[in-house]
Structures are given as C-alpha cells and as structure tokens.
Description:
The longest helix has 22 residues, at about 300-325. Among the domains are: about 1-210, ANL, N-terminal domain (Rossmann fold, 3-Layer(aba) Sandwich); about 405-475, Luciferase, Domain 3 (Luciferase, domain 3, Roll); about 475-655, ANL, C-terminal domain (GMP Synthetase, Chain A, domain 3). It is globular and about 75 Å long. It has a 5-stranded parallel beta sheet with strand order 4-3-5-6-7, sandwiched between helices. A 4-stranded mixed beta sheet has the order 2-1-11-10, sandwiched between helices. A hairpin with a 4-residue loop joins strand 15 (about 385) and strand 16 (about 390-395). By secondary structure, the protein is of the alpha/beta class. The protein is built from 23 helices and 30 strands. Helix 3 crosses helix 7 and helix 13 crosses helix 15. Keywords: ATP-binding, Ligase, Nucleotide-binding. Pfam families: AMP-binding, AMP-binding_C_3. Its EC number is 6.2.1.3. This is Long-chain-fatty-acid--CoA ligase FadD15. GO terms for molecular function: ATP binding; long-chain fatty acid-CoA ligase activity.
Amino acid sequence: MAQMQMGAEGKQSLPALLQRNAAQFANAPAYREKEFGIWQCWTWAETAKEIEALALGLINLGVNEGDFVAIIGRNRPYLYWSMVAAQAVGAVPVPLYQDAVAEEMAYVLGHCGARFVIVGDQEQADKVIEIQDQLHQFEHMIYLDPRGMRKYDHTQLHQFSHIQDQGRAARDELTGELAARQNKLNYDSTCVMLYTSGTTGKPKGVVLSNRNVIESAKNSAEFDKLTQNENILSYLPMAWVGDFIFSVGQAYWCGFCVNCPESADTMMTDLREIGPTYFFAPPRVFEGQLTNVMIRMEDASTLKRKMFHHFLAHAKEVGGKILDGKPVGMMDRLKYALGNALVYGPLKDTLGYGRIRVGYTAGEAIGPEIFDFYRSLGINLKQLYGQTEATVFITVQPDGEVRADTVGVPAPEVEIKIGDNGEIYYRSPGTFVEYFNNPESTASTKDAEGWVATGDAGFFEEGSGHLRIIDRAKDVGKMADGSMFAPKYVENKLKFYPDILEAVLFGNGRDRCVAFINIDLTAVGNWAERNNIAYASYQELAGHPKVLETIRSHVTQVNKSVAEDPMLSGCQIHRFVVLHKELDADDGEMTRTRKVRRRIVEEKFDDIITALYDGSEKVSTVTEVTYEDGRKGSIKATLTIVDAEVKPAAVHKVAAE
Length: 657
C-alpha cells in the first residue's frame, strides 16, 4: 500500500494514474477478457499503449476538449479503455446502459449532446442509427465488433481498431497535442458523467470530477485494505456508478486486474474460473444464486440434501461469529470445519466465491436471511450504502461490525446528518459537482454547504453508531391507524424465498397492506417439471392453484416475522395477487438497475389494487406490454386474489408485560 500511495501523489486524473501503473506495475495484468473460450490478457504497459493509440485516434477524428463521448456495450477492456482515452483528450465519457431501448438512448444522447458514440457491436450501432435523425450534434460512431457491419455506410462509421491504427500512424504529429491536453487535467476536471436510473422521472446526468472519483477510490481502498493483487470480475452495467468505481476508480488507484466475462450467459462459469478476491453484486445476483443452490438441492439425493441442511443449520448458528472473530466453542468450531470440508467449501467454489476476501452488496436492501446465508458460509459479504451522487460511498461496514439490519458507519471523510423528517443527508469528497444542464435539480438536492439530500429515511442506532435505512423517504408512510408503513422491509423478506422474484407492497394511508408478487420462472418452472405439472406460459404457471398455495405459505411466514417487529407489525400482508407478467424495465415498471417504479406500477395496475381492497375474489385485467423488438401489444388475464393469514402483533405482548 505504501508503494501505491507514494506513486499516486499528485496524480489527479485517471490518465495520470495509468502512467504511474504502466511504470510501477508494467508487467502485471491489468485486463483480462474471455473470448472464444480463451482468456486474453493485457499488462498495464500494454494497456497504456492501447489507450494512447485510441486517444491519438480520437484527436485525429476531431474529438475536442469538452466534447461528450457516449460509450455503449457490455463489459469489455476496449470500452473501459475508451473511457480513459476520452478523458485523456479532455472529453467527457458518458457510458449508457446497453439494454436500454433506442428511445431511452435518444434522450441521454440528446441531453448531453454527444458528438461521438463508441459501441460494442451491431446491435448497439443499429439503435444509434435508428435515432440519429433526432441527434443534431451526433457526428461519428466507432464500433468494436465488425461482425455484420461490412455493408453499412461508413461515412460516419469507423472500426475501433482502425481508429487506433490511425492514431499510431499520426503519433509523431499528435503526441504533443495529447500531452498538452492531459497536462491540463486536474482534480476539478470532469472524470465521467453517469445518468441516474430515473425512478421518478427522466434520468439526470450526474457530473463527477476527478476529485470525486479518485478520493472515493483511495478512501474505500484503504478502508478495505485493497492491494494491487486483487482480482475482480466486471460484469455489471458500465453505466452504473458501482461498476465505474470498482472497475475503473479503484482498479486504477490500486493497479489491480479487471476481468471481463465472455458474455452474460457465461458469467457464472467465468466467475468460477477467475475466483475473484474482491467482488461486488447487487442483491438480485445473490438472490438468484441462492435460488439456484436451493433448486439444485431439491434435485440432489436424500443423503446429500440432509447433509446440506444439517450443516447449513450449524453454519447459521456459528458461521457469522467465526467470520467476525467472536468466541465460539471448540466443538462448534470442529463441526464447522467439517461442514466447510463437506459442504461450505465445495459450495463456495461452485459459486466462484472460494477466494473472496471482501464482498459487497448495495443498490437495494438485501434480505437479512440472504445476507446471513452467505456470511454463514464464511464469505466476508458486507453492505454499503451509496448513491451515484456520492460517487458510491456514504456508509461502509467495518470488519467485525457487519450486520444485516444496518448499513454500517460513515465511510472515510463522509459526514452524515439526519433531518427532522428522518431524511438522510451527507457531504464528502465524493459529492457530485452538479446535474448536467439542470441547475434546479442540483439546487434542490445539494445545498450551498454541500449537504446532499438522499431521499432515504433512516436513523443512527444508539451505542453502535450504525445507520439503519428504513426505506425511501417518499415511500415511508403511515397506515390509517398511524403505524409505520415501510414497504421495502416486507418486500425483502418475501424475496428471500427462491420462487419469489419481486414483490410490491401497498398500504400507505390504508387500514391494511396488500401485495403484488412476481414468481421466479426458473425456480417455479423447475418445481413444475419435478412434479409433472404442464404449463404453456408464465401467466398459466403464475395462476396455478398449487403455486398460489405455496406463495400463500411464504406470505404467512413473512407475516409471522413482521409481526415480531413492534414498529412495523402493521405492514403484514392481508391479501395478494401473483401478477400475470414480470415487472419489466422495457414496460417502464422498473429502472435499468431493477428498482421498482412504484408510482408507475400503482397507476398501471390500479384496477388490481382496487380489487385487492374491495373484497373481490378475482379480477380481470388488460396490460400493455413491449416486446423485445420494440413492438407494443397487450395481454389479458383473470387473476385470483388470495387471502393471507395475519398474525397478532408483538406490540400487544410488550404492552401486556
């Protein structure tokens, strides 16, 4: 670490850190990518040359200082290089979500006025071509994968490798210009612009400076003792701030290796092959993996299944304590060691988690049961609380103080205060510069003293100093009887069950709570197959009587758990429906980062909510959907409304005592 800190002094941009890494870690791996089943590798010295060639090529193409360069595609070294090359020439990289439809891309590209777009493949190029008439400032597009691109009009189209070749050819003429532009970069220069997922409206362009990114990367790396020897798997959307800070900010600060999977389909295989030491995933990834584990155990032999559940029960009791260095009896340690040899170790290796030293989850609250499951296996999984506007880090969990019900303590150099209404405010070196071309939103989010309103409600626990997040401030409400309504708390408990993919709770201002539930097609489909239950569609399976009964049993268990919390016992679910379709970002019901757009869901399915409250046993509905090719259609369904068992609230017991 000392070597890193010494070398980083005065390094106030990513290109400057790249030069340091190329000198200090010249032959160490910087990037790996699996292509055609084989891992390709680039050292830091080779990476610096690739980025220099691209930067020179961008100048040659006409990229000016202050231009916006949009980058669209899956995680590939070339696209990560594009972000640093853009900054090296004084431009601003703007990564976009690769699964965004053309219409969404049109808004972002038009809003930032991108003159240049770098895409991964033909699919992304087609989206840009479809909307280019709406983009008045767009001039040139660079594509990485040439497959399918040969017969396109190349007047404004350029192959990535050709731009690099042109840069190398013009090296003598343009090196001075590139050096001059790089030397102008300082802590106040813009490092990247990331668009928020837009849960409440149009996405906003969050401007992050070099200070924001490098100071956040430095502080977080020192907090978790990250070194140049870490290996990470970069598979999350490049447009997301989490990926940017882990795969770019911390990677450049520490000099560790970024590994890119071959495709989304091979991600789990590639994860096992790399065996990362430092890993980040949103809750849905951990939820999905737990679902797959439970599905596989259902198919295992009776002996294996019994052994799995026996040792898992023991891990639940002592695994977290052992991980945190707390006292555990010798017999319990021996039994845990045996469980590690027979169950936990092989399971971690199967998941690709065998070498993880530090693991993080964020983006959404993770269900306590899911969180505890991974920690019980000996995986040092921690939660952080962050936002794009904070360059990720607001709170972190110190080793030995990791809990499922809090998000830890303020991250290094972060100040936090709680407003009178329970809203959380912070300020830090990572606090964003502004929302691009949106002074009103900037002013309403960040005050003159640099305090940022998070929009989340929470409180600091007495004694521990840990922050607890209740929910989004705008989502926390009151039931008709005055008790607290906090939907996320209940939804996360439901999502612990492998066959529940998503849940949305309603009840603000009402006398009772009701819920929408999405089944997990993989888990429930596997169950149907094992039980010889035939189904023709998601809709048919979701409405199957046995599926509804299984979901009802889960809701009953969740109600029992919720009833034990005196503050939130009013949030038990009285009635629910299993929806006839998955909530989908293409239909506007979720963001690209898989956060539910509650208001839209509430408006779109208003007829179903009405039926949940008026005592109806069934409800017929018609829902508009968007197909993969962008066409619109509609699906009709008659849904069964299920009554759930509600438990007596623990608050009455407390009062009686």
